[in-house]
Every structure is written in structure tokens, then in C-alpha cells.
Amino acid sequence: MTSDGAVLPARCIKTNQPVGAVDWTRTKKVYWTPPWVWFLVLVSPLIAVIVSAILQKKATLTYSLSRPVRAGYMKKTTFSLSVFLLGLGLMIYSFGNDSSSWQMAGVICGIAMLFLGLILAVVLSKAISVKKYQDGWFSIKGCSPEFLASLE
Asked: Can you give the pTM of this predicted structure?
């Protein structure tokens, strides 16, 4: 459990190895929204976004990643961006293509790849996130068990 403004120890949150000058340290805002809010998407996506913005809790955390772990996240982010850009290219190409038999299929596949790229970017590039919020304390996930045990 951490509070807003917490600076986690200078160790990689994934490997629990000490970090040095060549490693990566980042201050990041993390958010927690009650899970039930997302069921409001079934009623109205706009209502879900508004309620989410009102009820979400925010914290600023400073954490570190070792160089190899950071490189892995960069590869995942690059892959996600590539899927997104390929989808965009396919969609644009399909709009400009005169062959109407494949045009709609290309546009649909392009849109699907756009959304897939965005979802992958959100899911794969997140090193740390909030699991639970209670009375001003945030329970974080994404850290190795060794790292979390060393915090106690």
C-alpha cells in the first residue's frame, strides 16, 4: 500500500535489482476508478466516462525499471504502435482503392487494427497500476513479489 506522492525505493519494480544512472526512473500519475462504474457503459458510454471522471482517485508514484525491463516495454510499445499504423495505412489504402469488392473488408480490418493497436498500447505498456483504493491508500500491482515484500 502506498500513498499519493510515494517515491518507491531505487530498485527495479519487476526484478528487485538496484538501479543505477543508466536505468530508468519515472514519476507517473496512476488512477483508480471503482470497477462498477464500467458497467454503466451498457447504459451510456458518456455517462460512464462522466461518472468515472468524478469518482476516480489519483496518485503520483515514482518508480524505477532496469534497462533490460525498460527495453522490453519499449518493444511492446513499438509493436502496438506498428499495429495501429498498419491499420491506419490499410484503412487509407482501402478508401483509395477502386476495387469495391475488397474495399469494405480493408476498411473494416483497418479499423479493427486501429482499435487493437490502441488496446495493446494500453495493456502492454503499463508497468504499474492501481489495484485497490482505500482511505487514501493505493494498492499497486505490476511489481514483483520480492519488491513488494521488501517494502514492508
From this structure: 0.71
CB count within 10 Å of CB 30 equals 19
Length of the chain: 152
In which domain, by residue range, is 27 found? 2-151
C-alpha cell at 125: 505498456
| Full pLDDT tens readout for the chain, 152 residues | 777 888 888 889 898 888 887 788 888 888 888 889 888 888 988 998 999 999 988 888 888 999 999 999 999 999 999 999 999 998 888 887 766 777 888 888 999 999 999 999 988 888 888 888 888 888 888 888 888 888 76
The number of distinct structural domains making up the chain is 1
Q: Which three cell numbers stand for residue 76?
A: 511492446
The whole-angstrom separation of Cα 76 and Cα 120 is 8
